[in-house]
Structure formats: structure tokens, C-alpha cells
Records
---
Amino acid sequence: MWSNSKNGWGRISIGVHWLSALTVFGLFALGWWMTGLGYYDAWYKMAPWWHKSIGIVLLALSLFRVAWRVLQPTPAAHGSSRKRLAAHLGHGLIYLTLFVVMVSGYLISTAEGEGISVFGLFAVPALVTGLPHQAVIAGDIHWYAAWSLVVLAVGHGLAALKHHFVDRTDTLTRMLTTRPSRRH
Ligand code: HEM
Ligand code: HEM
């Protein structure tokens, strides 16, 4: 139920997947909106505070997710061995891009040596600071990687819909529920 099996994803994997999907799209919209705010806007300071706090929580969640993924069995992928390899590489690329976005966000925020306050509860220390043009370069990487992640995620979502409606496999339903499906 909570853990994965050879036949399906468990509640933990399903919950983390959808929570992180929601958070990725939310942070993208928030990041885009907040960088257009003027200095006198009421959200000028608060929006980045939320963006960074939520971003650090997503980073922690994603580290847990990868550990869980490595420790748990996974349901078998469908299709020919070439398609399975493509899906595997695609998911790997999503994970990689996700971490590039989060690490570059961390490096923008800590460029001047300041830690990152997480909801005012604790601060993540600035471990890497003062690299040449750190904030600007990390900022450029963050922007392009965030875009790549969103494009990959939308393509990935469309692929899931294709598996559901065209190929009629249980790929999407097993990411939504732990109940066994009649489809295979
Ligand atoms: C647009 C909405 C989305 C839909 C409909 C969707 C659907 C799915 C489905 C059905 C699977 C299971 C594939 C299988 O069982 O082989 C899956 C896996 C996965 N999804 Fe999504 N997804 C969405 C958004 C996202 C986003 C935003 C991310 C990025 C954080 C993401 C990252 C992943 C990863 C990395 C896997 C592979 C899991 C693993 O093998 O560890 N998905 N997704
Ligand atoms: C998947 C997670 C994330 C997504 C999709 C995302 C997305 C974005 C986007 C679209 C922007 C606007 C960039 C621009 O207009 O140049 C932005 C800005 C920013 N993000 Fe993120 N972000 C994520 C995670 C993080 C994390 C974890 C941190 C730090 C802890 C962070 C820190 C920042 C900062 C400081 C800015 C402002 C950069 C500037 O002023 O140019 N982000 N983010």
C-alpha cells in the first residue's frame, strides 16, 4: 500500500510525484511573476521568501524521493525495450533538470554569503559563495533549466495521456491509485 511493488507504485511514490509536480509548476509561475515586481510592490520581498522556502522543501522532498526510488522496487515499464529505455532516459533527464533548477536557485540565493531562511524556521547555510558572477550565471542557468523542466514535464504529461488513451496501458492509472487495474 505505502511501498512500491513490482505491480504498482505505492502511496508514498504517488503522493510525492503529484506533490512535486504541483510544486514545480507553482514555483515556475511564482518565480516568473516575482521577478517582474517593482521595488515598491508589497510582494517584492515576500514572494522570493515563499519561492525560496518552498524551493528548499522541494529540494529535501526530491532527495528523499531519489533515495526512496533507489531503495524500492519499481513497477515494470510497458512497451518494447527501446521504448522502455526512452522512458527511463526521459525520467532520468527530468530528475537531472529538476536538480539543476534547485541547485542553481540555491546558488543565486547564497551568492552574497547569506543563508536561506526556510519559512523563518531555520536557515540553510551558504556553502558556496563568491564565485565569479555567481548570481548572474546561476540566475541564467536557473531560468533556462526551469523552462526546460516545464517543457519536459508537459511533454511527459502528454506522453502519459497517450499511454492512457491511445495505448490503453495502466501507466497513468497506476500513478493515480494503488488499486490494481484491469489494464496492463
Ligand atoms: C503534467 C502532469 C504529469 C503527469 C500526467 C505525469 C504522469 C506520470 C506517470 C503516469 C508516471 C508513471 C510512469 C510509469 O509508471 O512508468 C510518471 C512518472 C514520473 N514523473 Fe510524472 N507526470 C506529470 C508531471 C511530472 C512533473 C512536473 C515531474 C517533475 C518533477 C514529473 C516527474 C516524473 C518522474 C521523474 C517519473 C518517473 C518516476 C520514477 O521512475 O522514479 N512528472 N509521471
Ligand atoms: C523546480 C523548482 C523551481 C522552479 C521551477 C523555479 C523557477 C523560477 C523562475 C521561472 C524564476 C524566474 C527567473 C527569471 O525571471 O530570471 C525563478 C527565480 C528565482 N528562483 Fe527559482 N525555481 C525553483 C526553485 C528554486 C529554489 C530551490 C531556489 C532557492 C532556494 C530558487 C531561487 C530563486 C531566486 C533567488 C530567483 C530570483 C532570481 C532573480 O532575481 O533573477 N528557486 N525561479
---
Amino acid sequence: MSIVVTGATGQLGRLTVEALLRRGVPAADIVATGRDTARIKDLADRGVVTRRADFADPDSLAVAFAGAEKLLLISASIPVDERLDHHRRAIDAALTAEVPLIAYTSMTRADTARTILAETHRATEEYLRERDAPAVVLRNSWYLENYTGQLPLALQHGTFLGAAGDGTVSAATRTDYAEAAAVVLTTEGHTGAVYELGGDQAFTLAELAATASAATGTPVAYTDLPAGAFAQALSDAGVPAELARILADSDLGLGRGELFTDTGDLRRLIGRPTTTLADAITAALR
Ligand SMILES: NC(=O)c1ccc[n+]([C@@H]2O[C@H](COP(=O)([O-])OP(=O)(O)OC[C@H]3O[C@@H](n4cnc5c(N)ncnc54)[C@H](OP(=O)(O)O)[C@@H]3O)[C@@H](O)[C@H]2O)c1
């Protein structure tokens, strides 16, 4: 059996490869792919097969996906207007290679969410249906790391900034999402499923601040801003303008409940409670 993972040079892909190894998949049955395989040489040293796969280069995809029984297609971290073409090329290559199952990492409520990010995921899911692809959709909510990564700045300034109002987000760790992906790739009965994956305990950004305060002993607040002001604050902090616009737009979606899920799909797939915000903050502080 060969399981191909795209984006293995990135964080979620690498964690999924690690989770597959932990689940006992022989290293030689895992194909870790990325645009630059030098970045996953350590995986090759452990016996994992590494191949170059660039969504912009169909020839590389044909080679990378050959012989795959399962494919984890991780959405690309590139400008949003290029993502759909990339995903379509990857799906086309997987169908040409007759891959029996494509697992695609999408986003919470991609079918109805109105954010810029959800649009590409919705279109990719539609393309999978249009092409009648044997697929399973892993709709991941936000990563907890999106917030733990902001801790140093939040502690320094005494506040998290956002534009999410009192919306709740079902964030979970990348490790938990990766473990769920590994379960889907190593067990049967997932074709056609759409999993809404998120943490067991959704939280507001004010609750995020309260949890950070309790964990650190440093008072941290949450400051809710109009989306434009939030995007400007991100730009001022060095975030590229386009990304700042997308992040502010995502916070508006969060406020509308578009990153909230209470399906329990993640917990069920990984067979344990999801990592809590408090535990993720404690781990990040270490
Ligand atoms: N749920 C969330 O909170 C959240 C947050 C951010 C992003 N995301 C989405 O989830 C995905 C995985 O997250 P992550 O944290 O693992 O992101 P990441 O660390 O940035 O990894 C993204 C991966 O996509 C690969 N990629 C980019 N362009 C590609 C192309 N043309 N062909 C093939 N691969 C390409 C990258 O390869 P290179 O090493 O070659 O660049 C990298 O391996 C992201 O790509 C993004 O779509 C979700």
C-alpha cells in the first residue's frame, strides 16, 4: 500500500507523515512530497519515499502520484487566486493515476461560509464532485497554533487583536488534525464522507485572552476592531497587505460562526478528546 502526502515540506503534511509512522505504516509505503525534497531529507533518511510534487507542474504530479492507493491533498499555501487551478491539476493527476481515494483538506463549513478562504475550498470540493472523484473531505477549522503563535506579541502588548466579535472558533492543534488525516488514510469506509473537524471546546477571542492570562499570570485582553482597522494593524505589524485582508475577512467569518463546529468528528476520528486551548498554550510557553 502506498500513501502519498502532498505538502509534506509543510507543517500539517510533515505531522501527518509522522502520524502515519506512529500508526505503524511502513516508511517505505509512505510517499512524502513537496516542491523541494531537500527539505524532507530527514524523512528520506528514515526510509520514507520522497518525491517532488509541484501543483504547477503536472509532470511532477504524474510521477509523484503513480501507484498511490490513498492521496492526502493538502491545500496549497499560495495566493488564493492561484489555489483552485493548482488543486484542479492535482485532482486531475490523481484521477489519471487512478488513485482510489483522495483526502482533501478543506475548511469548516466550506459549502456555506462566505470568507475569501472558503471560496477556494468550496470550489475545490465542487470540482471533486464534478469529476466524480473518490474523495473524502477533511474540513479543518483554525489551527490553535494561529493563536499560540501570537502569544509573545499579545503578552508584550497586553492584548490580542481581532475582528471576530463574540464568535466562537473550534480551533484544534495541527497534530490533532494530522492524526485524523492519518486515521482516514489507514482505515476504510471514508469515501464520500465530509468531516467537519474542530476542537471539542470552541472559544471566543475574549476567552482566548482569559485563558492566556490564567496560563501566564500576565493580564491579556482581547481588543475587537472593525475589520479594516484590524487589517491595518496587521499590515503595520509587517503582515503583507493581501494576507492581512484575508485574515481580517476570516475573523469576520469567525464572528458569523463559520469556523465553529460541534460535530465531534475530530474527537471520534482520533479516539480521544482534542487538545485544549489551555494545554496548547502551556505547551507553547514551554
Ligand atoms: N486551518 C488553519 O488554521 C490554516 C492556517 C493556515 C493555512 N491553512 C491551510 O492548510 C494548509 C496546510 O497548513 P500548513 O500549516 O501545513 O501550511 P504550510 O506549513 O505553509 O505548508 C503548506 C504546504 O503547501 C505546499 N505547497 C505550496 N505551494 C505548492 C505547490 N505549488 N505545489 C505543491 N505543494 C505546494 C508547501 O510546499 P513548499 O514547502 O514547497 O512551499 C507546503 O508543504 C495550508 O497550505 C493552507 O492551505 C490552514
---
Amino acid sequence: MGAIDGSAYLGRLRERQPEIWINGQRITGNICEHQAFKGILTSKAALYDLQLAPEFRELMTYVSPLSGRRVGTSYLEPRSKEDLEKRRKAAQEWAKASGGLMGRSPDYMNTGIMALGTAWDIFDGNESWGSAIKSLYERGRENDLSFSHTFVTPQVNRSLGYFENNGEEPLAAKVIKTTSDGLIIKGARLLATQGGLTDELVVLPVMGNFIEDSSVYAFSIPSSTKNLKFICRESFSYSSSHYNHPLGSRFEEMDTIVVFDSVEVPWERVFLHKDMEVLFNMYNDSSFYSFLLHQTVARQAVKTEFILGIAQLLVDTIQIDSYQHVKEKVSEIIVGYEIMKSLLLASEMEAAPDSRGRMIPSSNSLYAAISTYPKLHARLMEILQLLGASGLITIPAEEDFDSEVGPDLNHYLKGTDCDAKTKIGLFRLAWDISTSAFGGRQTVYERFFFGDPVRISTGIYNGYERQEAKDLVFRLLND
Ligand SMILES: Cc1cc2nc3c(=O)[nH]c(=O)nc-3n(C[C@H](O)[C@H](O)[C@H](O)COP(=O)(O)OP(=O)(O)OC[C@H]3O[C@@H](n4cnc5c(N)ncnc54)[C@H](O)[C@@H]3O)c2cc1C
């Protein structure tokens, strides 16, 4: 099969019919026509079309070492810095299609599957785990599968001493039974963005101070697996009008609570169960986080450039660039963009091969980027609000321009050099990224995109090699 186009992606989704609930109802009809999903599904389908377009095919695909077919670049195992560059450019080409707003574009988790699947030896020696993760990687790559994923347990009690004890009705999804056929999982996981909108769901364990055996498991199952439910939050795709909701109508990814109602996971899909050593190695030794961060920071750099473009257009439209503080604010976005871009490129410059011959982007600069972005992104949204001011709120809808009050709007809401409809279209975009329900969710998303920023900082503190820094000081003191 190899790399697919948009209609193949949508066709598979329609056929699968996963159990998705929204507004108290299960989706039974064609999900591609549902208001909550049609925008994101059309946008995702366009990504798949793009990878096969003649001008992008070389960048977005490569020849599979197994089948000889062209497969998606997000599955490419990097063996050189050129491979990393190709991966980055492909990720950014997809990111440009959404201004970097689609966090879970297919390349995100495909990258995670590549990281684990090309380090299958970590899982080997334990039952059939090595072959399970290897075949997941190969199946994903050869069929261009897409994945949503879930790590997090329900947010019921996060105190350090909390130990869940709900007997037969667990809150956090657990293995409640093993049979000759596989694991039986019961309970919930939060949060799967695009849950049910992908071919498969990858379920991965979190690392923690204390984790029970029954919570140590990893597998991937079809989104349509029996007894697997995806419960959606309220949709922020309020209409299909790209004018009224330029972002929500296209890129509302949806987030879901995942309920495992005694889901049976066949052994051949399990690549971890109860083994703490494999759990530790599967993230560290596979460079899972470094590879995922490389894709994430590539997207965030594109998003920052997109935000810079919006800010500059706001400034131009109402001619506020003679004010020094306006220049300072736009400069802050430029600096943020340059920092993200530089950290991304530094990760490639300092990349080094691992024992398997895979080229691993340097995690130091990538962690610096992911630690910077939650604060930077929130500040960028603040800057858009400060520059746009009431213009972010004075945003009549498309229908108003065609009504009796249209002439009033055309007269009073125009920009310095553009008509009112053009100006309001731009301000609606600035509102949708910074202030609407869709925009609010984006800010929370970027805050927690790679996990809790507080714990990411602790990880940086714990993992960063500082001997050379201390030696510099000793050299001066001892001189
Ligand atoms: C829009 C959005 C989309 C997401 N999509 C996905 C997805 O697709 N897949 C997925 O797996 N996850 C996803 N997540 C979940 C994301 O990984 C988590 O939000 C993140 O890991 C933080 O976990 P939490 O939300 O449970 O916060 P909590 O862990 O409950 O934290 C709440 C607060 O308590 C503090 N806190 C809690 N425990 C500790 C501790 N031990 N030490 C210090 N402080 C602590 C935190 O700092 C924070 O301030 C998504 C989240 C959002 C917001």
C-alpha cells in the first residue's frame, strides 16, 4: 500500500466506525459530515494528499526498505543528519498547512512508533514484545496508519501519597485479568486528542515514583476495538464558515476521555507488561522523547512564524507601527521565533548516532525549547490581544456583511488600506488563535503539550550534565 492519500484515510475512518460519543449521543452516521469533525478530517485528508503531490512526494515520502514502496517520511529511521533534516522539513511542510495548529498531525505519533519500533531490541527477550513493536512499526509504515495516544490517568487525586484502591471498578485503566488470549483492561485514560479519528490508539505507561504492576503495560489497538469508548468534550467547531471561525472550522482536533470497558488486548499487540526495567528503557534508550521533541519543536517554530505573520498584519492594517512599544512587542515574537528555530537546528548540529546507528537529535536544546514554549506561547497570545485590543472583539460575522447593516459595517470597520470585510477576516483570525474557545484550548494545549512543564523542568535539572560548568569555576578558583 505505502503512503496514502486523503480519500484512503477518510475511507478507512468511515469503515471503522469507532465508538465515539459527543453531546450525549453516539456517532452512528458518516463522521466526515458531522459538524464537530468535518473540519479536522478535511484538513487531515489534505495532509495525506499533500504528501503525494508531485512537488512534495520526494520530501514527504521515501522508499521502504521492506516493500520498496514509497512510505511517509514521518516513519523514516534517521541514519544521518541529512535524514534528520528531511524529517524536519517534512514535519514543517505539514505544519505549514495548519499554521502549526494541528498538534497531533499524523507525523507526531508516527515518530513515536518509529522511535520504539527501531529500538525493538529493548523489548526483545520478553515474550513476543520485540516482534510486537517491530511489526507495529512495519504495519504502520507500510499502511500509513495514524495513531492517537494516551498516557495520563484520571485527574482525581494527584497528592503524592494517593494510592487508588477501587477494587473491581478502577478509575485509572488497569489490567484486571490476563487470559491465554491477552490482557483485559478496565478503567479510563485521559486525554486522547483526536481519539477515534485515527486508525489505532497507542496506550503507553507514565513513569512515576510509584506505579503498580497492573498499570505497567503498552500496546496499540484499532480505534474500533470492542468496548473501547471515546467520550468527546464540547466541540469548538461552531460553524463551517472559514470566515467566521478561520481556525476552529478547520483545525478543531477534539480531545477525548478514553474508557476501556473490559477491553481485550491480544498478546500479539502487547509490547510491555509489568516489566519495570523495560518501562524505564523504552523511553530512555529508544530516544522516544528526543525524536518526538524534534517533530514538536519543528511544528512550534512554524506556529511561531505564523503568529508573527498575524501580528505584523494587525499592525499594518491599523497602522500602529510608529509606536515604540508596538515594535518591541513584534520584536518579542521575532526573538521567540529565532530561539525556537535555533534550538531546533542546534539539536541537529549536535545529533549523534546511538548504538543502533540511528541519528539522535540532541535532547538538550529540544528540552530547552519545550520548556520555553509554554511561557512563550502564552505571551505571544497576550501580545496579539494587546495589539488587536477591541478589534479582537468587534468582529461581526460574515452574514452581517450581507445584511441591511452591511453598509454601516463597511463604512465604520474598514482598515487603513483595506475594506472592512478583509480587516475583520484578519481580526477574526487573531481572535480565533488567541481569544476564542478554540484559542483558549490552544494555549492550554501548548502549556501541557509535552506533559507538565513543572516536571519537565525537574527532569532538565536532574538530567543535565553540569560537570564542565563546575570545572570552569574550579579552574578560575584554583588559578
Ligand atoms: C489540550 C490538551 C490535549 C492533550 N492531548 C493529549 C494526548 O493526545 N495524549 C495524552 O496522552 N495526553 C494529552 N494531554 C494530557 C497532557 O499530557 C497532560 O495535561 C499533562 O501531562 C499534565 O497532566 P494533567 O493534565 O493530568 O495535570 P496534573 O498532573 O493533574 O497537574 C495539575 C497541577 O498539579 C501539579 N502537579 C500534579 N502532580 C504533580 C507532581 N507530582 N509534582 C509537581 N506538580 C504536580 C501540576 O504541576 C499542575 O499544576 C493533553 C492535554 C491537553 C490540555
---
Amino acid sequence: MGQSITVENLQAWYGEQLTLREISMDVDANQVTAIIGPSGCGKSTFIRCLNRLHETIPQGKVRGRVRLGTEDLYAMDPVDVRRVVGMVFQKPNPFPTMSIYENVAIGLKLGGIRNKSELLDRVEQSLRMAALWDEVKDRLHKPAVALSGGQQQRLCIARALAVEPEVLLMDEPASALDPVSTLRVEELVLQLKERYTILIVTHNMQQAARIADKTAFFLNGELIEYGDTTTMFTKPADKRTEDYITGRFG
Ligand SMILES: Nc1ncnc2c1ncn2[C@@H]1O[C@H](COP(=O)(O)OP(=O)(O)OP(=O)(O)O)[C@@H](O)[C@H]1O
Ligand SMILES: [Mg+2]
């Protein structure tokens, strides 16, 4: 099952530059939450704070609190955090020297699973969840980089799911994909929310409207408005949200 995430007064810096300003928001378990806002407003920085990646960036600094369920995420071992909070990036990034199978199995092997048939079962399950199994079941040992971009992105989703996370962070996962692959990823997100809590960064308003239960609008490192997606797109409370979603800036 998915976990809720509670963010309190989160601030993030790159060196002296304060990039996230006192963000507080509650992310519901087993829901899709979209993060929108103009380029440079801090969307990627925000989701990187939710799996402890921001602090790995040189000069990256974080203050404030993040809870995963009831646990303090910043008191956990970062390696455990990244197992529980999976991430899919904008550009599909399969491990280039590995096969399709190896890309999905690697996290399981690192987690200590050695049994061949168990590994194969878990790889199959993950590829099925990512709606990729039928397309690759006959070529599992071929290089992952021989897949199309859309297939590579679903492979990265399968890789993230293999280790059974509770939260899935997706940073513009469909922006490099064609419309058909984009729709497949969107359908997948809607299916996955039964089992996971999903945060998705997107520049595509229609996409947010189609898949997100709640939407958060960021501007210059601040959370301007956060709420039910339908309400936000039909009756935004803040003039800046309205300007953004109607395309008047950004
Ligand atoms: N590694 C970094 N080092 C220094 N500054 C950074 C770094 N990454 C991002 N920033 C700065 O932090 C701010 C927020 O960047 P971030 O990548 O979070 O924005 P974003 O909302 O994801 O934008 P986009 O929609 O273009 O992906 C920007 O001003 C950016 O220049
Ligand atoms: Mg970004």
C-alpha cells in the first residue's frame, strides 16, 4: 500500500540560493498528486527532497520536516528511503550496459534475492505492472537500450516498481514520449495508484487534469495553491494560478 507524505516548512538551498521557501503540504496515500509551475520554480528540487536526493547534490541543503506515514524521512537511512520512495526521471535512463532483465533484477539482487526463479517471477511481475511484459517477454536478455524511448521509460518504471516502493516520484515522465506512449504512461499511473502514492511533475495541464486527484502549483520556490485538481482548474483561488493555467505566463 502507499504511504502518505507530510511536508512541513521545507526549505532547500543550492549553496546560498534559497530555492524552496517554507513548503508545507500533505500528500494523500494512494492518490495521484500533480506538481505544476513554470520552469525553474522548484518542482524537481521539491520531489528530490522527498527521496533524499537533493542532499547528494553539491551544496544541496535541506531544512524542515518530511514524514513518510508516521516516520521522519530525514531520520531514516537514505538508502532505505530510496527503496521505499522510487523515482522515475524525465529522460529514460536504463543502465546502458545491461539487458532488459538485468535492469529490473538489479535492485532485487542488491536487496539480497539470489534465487533465479524468484528473480524471474519478480521481474515478470514488475514488467507486467509497467505494461511492458508482452512487448519484451521474448527478448529479456537483449540490451535495454535497444528499446524505443517509450518502452525504455516503462522499463524504468518497472525497475522502480521491482523493489516494491510505497511512493513513486515521477519527474515529467512523459515529456520525451510520443502521444501514444504518453497515454500509456498515464493509464499506467491511474492503475498504479491502487498500490502506490504517486507524485508527478508535469508541464502538461491536460495531463494533470486527466490523472491527478490533487494538484500543487509552485511559483518561484513557493507553494501558491494546492487542492483538488478539478477545483484548481475551474475555480483557482489565486490570481497567479489562474494566470498560469490559462497560459498567461510561464
Ligand atoms: N544542481 C543545481 N545547482 C544549482 N542550482 C540548481 C541546480 N538544480 C536546480 N537549480 C536551480 O534551482 C531552481 C529550481 O530548479 P528546479 O530544477 O527545481 O526547477 P523545475 O521547476 O524543476 O524546472 P523545470 O520545469 O525546468 O524542470 C532553478 O533556479 C535552478 O536554476
Ligand atoms: Mg524539473
